[in-house]
Amino acid sequence: MCTAITYKAENSYFGRTLDVYFSYGQEIVVTPRNFSFTFRDKGKIRNRYAIIGAAVVKENYPLYFEAANECGLAMAGLNFPKNAVYYDKAETKDNIPPFEFIPWILSQCKNLDDAKKLIKNINLWNENFSENMPLSPLHWIIADKEKAITAESTKDGIRIFDNPFGVMTNDPTFDYHLINLGEYANLTNKVPENLFGDVKLNLHSLGIGAKGLPGENSSTARFVRAAFTKTNAETVKDENESVRQFFHILGSVNQVKGCNKTTENKSMYTDYTSCINLDKGIYYYTTYENSCISAIDMHKCNLDGDKLVKFPFRRKLIIENQN
């Protein structure tokens, strides 16, 4: 269960929440330009564009949860268990297992148009990373500095949707989320108009214009809440203010331990929230344990190198004592 958004201010931003009931041990990983990816069907390909994002590294391979390349193209994989379908190997296609999808696109594409061309020939191949690491059922939001799409591999094959809201959560399929959003077209951030004729009504509170905005943790509720919050959030120009605003927007869908239990009685929670400046290549994040914003600038790493650069998430709570 996760939520991803794009955000346009003076710069462009992309990020997500990772909602889980345990941590995978992920790190922030920079893949430099000369790192060689070995793809199961396509062989070894030297990385064309440097990449930064959150990943678990296994066998020197970054399994990215979300990432962006130095050109400002970004991707995030979100849980999609009810609808994800992967396929057997196809002779005339680029057979890409889902764990290779983000590296396959971000290592070769500068923008969304490049990505769409590659996706047209992709077959999301039902090939596990290893015997102990089966595939995760995912769908993806892909965005550059101007627009976003959603990619889903279902029983109907791979489908691409324009994503005008720059928002994505989990099941159901993206087209359903767009239809469902229409149920909330009346929501407003303004004081609502009195439609009771000449009877003057005294509103007991501000915020009534958004009455009906769903507040639970379901994927459909988070989609509506994130779309409403992002649409109405004030746009700012300063970098620090933009980053802060981004985290406030995603804060509207953060999950608190104990409020959303799995069938095994385990607590879902927002393990981390990320925000990537697509113009500057800076990865910002907070964690459940530490709400202080940390930042990693990919351009301060050796982007012409050939080895992965890893940074641990800072999870120890930081409190500034004022007296």
Topology, element by element:
Layout: E1 2-8, E2 12-20, E3 27-31, E4 36-39, E5 43-46, E6 51-58, E7 61-69, E8 74-79, E9 94-96, H1 98-106, H2 112-119, E10 122-124, E11 138-143, E12 148-154, E13 157-162, E14 167-168, H3 174-181, H4 219-232, H5 239-251, E15 269-277, E16 282-287, E17 294-297, E18 309-312
Parallel strand pairs: 9-10
Antiparallel strand pairs: 1-2, 1-14, 2-15, 3-6, 3-18, 4-5, 6-7, 7-8, 8-11, 11-12, 12-13, 15-16, 16-17
Question: How would you describe what is shown here?
Answer:
With 323 residues, the protein is of the alpha+beta class. It is built from five helices and 18 strands. It has helices spanning 98-106, 112-119, 174-181, 219-232, 239-251, and strands at 2-8, 12-20, 27-31, 36-39, 43-46, 51-58, 61-69, 74-79, 94-96, 122-124, 138-143, 148-154, 157-162, 167-168, 269-277, 282-287, 294-297, 309-312. The longest helix is centred in the last third of the chain and has 14 residues, at 219-232.
Q: Could you estimate the helical fraction of the residues in percent?
A: 10-25%
Series of secondary-structure elements, N-terminal to C-terminal: EEEEEEEEEHHEEEEEHHHEEEE
Q: What is the general shape?
A: globular
Q: Report the span from N to C terminus.
A: 40 Å
Total number of beta strands: 18
The structural class is: alpha+beta
List low-confidence stretches: none
Oligomer: single chain
Q: Indicate the radius of gyration in whole angstroms.
A: 20 Å
Helix count from the secondary structure assignment: 5
Mean pLDDT: 94
List the strand order in the largest sheet.
13-12-11-8-7-6-3-18
% residues in beta strands: 25-35%
Main beta-sheet annotation: 8 strands, antiparallel
